[in-house]
């Protein structure tokens, strides 16, 4: 018994020495390689901040410099600029964010009558909508959200609340979950079909409209929209013609119904101001407590005629009430 122990100890000692030797050699190989900017990013951000230690980090620690992601797409350059093929995911996120913001602006302003109240986008609709964005884009989008500013969302699903009352915060955020080790997943491969969705405004200390909230780099681009002097230059009036159909292959009438609504901006070709673009990108930030990954988001604003229900129509104006946000992992963009 004792003999075996001694051998084990000896063997361990030998192994340690071997390992040490190896380490010294390994050290030698890498010291002559000069450290570059990528090593700095990895050391300062990616290795330093993880899901288990991010809660105690400051907001500044969890946001990278703004020059790290290159060739960020701009709405008025999409037709005139050649994008590298490794930027196609960013272009796709740009278009998805714009598409969601455009649609939400349209549907909120379209469904403004008493009969439409019960069929406005509700809790269920928004949860399904962000899930669909993620599941429809398994190779480009890791997260999608529709987030409302404070006191602008009328919850038609809260039946004990007056129709003209808003709730303070409502932000539907979805992100793809890794289900490699899920119980029902026998083959132990992620199938990219599991999404976690959460109302990020629910609960204590979840005020994402507050500057001190850590995980809201998408907020300050357009929200809160309280100054009406900018309305003309950062919103756009779209006029669309729609033909409705209630039977397959047949329209109710042959003419188009014209509908005008306010939506995200439509900048001219020579617009240089980034603030006038309909979609803007955040710096890479750590999505602490949600997906726990470094992500970059494309953000586009949602417009509504606000307040929705008021007898004083002259007090109403087209206002940015929320944002559509698309996330991608930093390592993939
Ligand atoms: C994208 O492709 C271009 C051209 O091939 C290359 O110069 C650039 O470094 C690539 N960017 C990334 C982030 O891989
Ligand atoms: C609903 O929207 C239409 C088209 O913008 C507008 O003409 C109508 O006045 C609005 N109705 C209400 C109740 O706000
Ligand atoms: C995030 O999206 C990229 C594609 O852009 C994909 O390769 C990666 O697996 C996704 N990550 C998760 C956890 O879904
Ligand atoms: C909401 O509607 C009720 C009646 O249904 C009315 O008494 C109240 O003043 C309205 N509140 C607002 C903020 O318009
Ligand atoms: C959230 O923070 C904003 C900005 O500080 C404040 O005006 C608002 O009252 C807060 N809302 C809630 C529900 O705490
Ligand atoms: C479709 O709408 C037209 C016009 O409102 C109506 O006459 C027709 O009965 C509707 N058809 C169905 C299947 O609901
Ligand atoms: C708003 O106008 C309607 C119809 O004119 C009226 O019945 C209602 O009492 C008014 N509501 C308020 C809060 O003034």
Automatic annotation (TrEMBL):
Keywords: Signal. This is Uncharacterized protein. The keyword Signal applies. Residues 1-26 form the signal peptide. The keyword Signal applies.
């Amino acid at each position: 018994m004792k003999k075996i122990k001694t051998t084990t100890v000896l063997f361990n000692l030998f192994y340690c020495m071997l390992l040490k030797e190896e380490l010294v050699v390994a050290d030698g190989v890498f010291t002559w390689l000069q450290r570059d900017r990528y090593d700095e990013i990895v050391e300062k951000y990616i290795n330093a901040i993880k899901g288990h230690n991010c809660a105690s980090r400051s907001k500044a620690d969890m946001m990278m410099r703004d020059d790290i992601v290159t060739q960020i797409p701009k709405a008025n350059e999409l037709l005139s600029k050649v994008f590298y093929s490794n930027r196609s995911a960013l272009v796709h996120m740009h278009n998805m964010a714009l598409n969601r913001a455009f649609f939400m602006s349209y549907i909120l302003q379209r469904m403004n009558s008493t009969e439409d109240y019960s069929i406005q986008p509700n809790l269920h609709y928004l949860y399904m909508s962000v899930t669909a964005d993620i599941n429809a884009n398994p190779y480009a989008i890791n997260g999608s959200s529709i987030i409302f500013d404070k006191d602008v969302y009328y919850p038609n699903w809260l039946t004990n609340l007056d129709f003209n009352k808003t709730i303070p915060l409502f932000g539907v955020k979805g992100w793809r979950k890794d289900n490699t080790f899920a119980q029902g997943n026998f083959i132990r491969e992620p199938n990219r079909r599991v999404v976690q969705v959460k109302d990020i405004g629910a609960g204590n200390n979840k005020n994402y409209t507050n500057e001190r909230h850590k995980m809201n780099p998408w907020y300050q681009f357009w929200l809160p929209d309280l100054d009406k002097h900018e309305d003309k230059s950062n919103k756009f009036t779209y006029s669309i013609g729609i033909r409705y159909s209630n039977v397959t292959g047949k329209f109710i009438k042959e003419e188009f119904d014209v509908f005008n609504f306010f939506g995200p901006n439509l900048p001219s070709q020579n617009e240089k101001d980034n603030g006038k673009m309909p979609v803007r990108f955040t710096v890479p930030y750590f999505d602490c407590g949600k997906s726990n990954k470094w992500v970059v988001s494309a953000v586009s604003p949602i417009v509504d005629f606000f307040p929705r229900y008021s007898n004083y129509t002259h007090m109403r104006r087209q206002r940015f009430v929320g944002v559509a946000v698309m996330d991608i992992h930093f390592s993939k963009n």
